[in-house]
Amino acid sequence: xxxxxxxxxxxxxxxxxxxxxxxxxxxxxxxxxxxxxxxxxxxxxxxxxxxxxxxxxxxxxxxxxxxxxxxxxxxxxxxxxxxxxxxxxxxxxxxxxxxxxxxxxxxxxxxxxxxxxxxxxxxxxxxxxxxxxxxxxxxxxxxxxxxxxxxxxxxxxxxxxxxxxxxxxxxxxxxxxxxxxxxxxxxxxxxxxxxxxxxxxxxxxxxxxxxxxxxxxxxxxxxxxxxxxxxxxxxxxxxxxxxxxxxxxxxxxxxxxxxxxxxxxxxxxx
Length: 270
Prior knowledge:
270 residues; mainly beta; 18 strands; rod-shaped; 3 helices; Immunoglobulin-like; four-stranded antiparallel β-sheet; six-stranded antiparallel β-sheet; 3 domains
């Protein structure tokens, strides 16, 4: 639904007409909505809701009739934009995985096998006749998801992080320092980290994200002599450091508020 509105001024003051009619035309001059009588919501203020219009250019023709005066017609062109496309974006989990892979060769990602227990995690990817893995003291991270990203039902949050106490290369078992409440299920995604996932890795990622920003274009509606507008919200810690303009399009820095924990709180990652 689209909302079309207009203000009618007479001698500098809002004033309603005796009768007001609205008709909407497309670029071919064909009336696609109306003519309809529009009743003012207040003195000189007219608002009309029209059913969904296809993206394109239109003209709203307002006709104001007042007894004893010539009929006044006001034409206002407007545009209906196409729906904005959306993307899924990147999750906090994906950023953590990308960062962990760049911090050294200790990061591993594998899938749990059929022989995991509450004492150890099993994976055929870790099974080898050569004891070439130095996995002791690494952190085992379980996000409660399968390899395909689907969630594991009733996954206990307290099973999220453990430390490797022993690696058995012949069986592909990683024993952990504390028993799990729920053993890893076949096909579960398992990660090995050098940095503690909850107290070192995630805080580092969140702090980095809080320093990130993107450039956006904002059109400033104010004109002289009304002065300038600070494009950074006054409640932001960046207030006073953003561009200031009096009219036209300017680039502004958008980002999260300082000290905000929203990134960690709303992340879709496990």
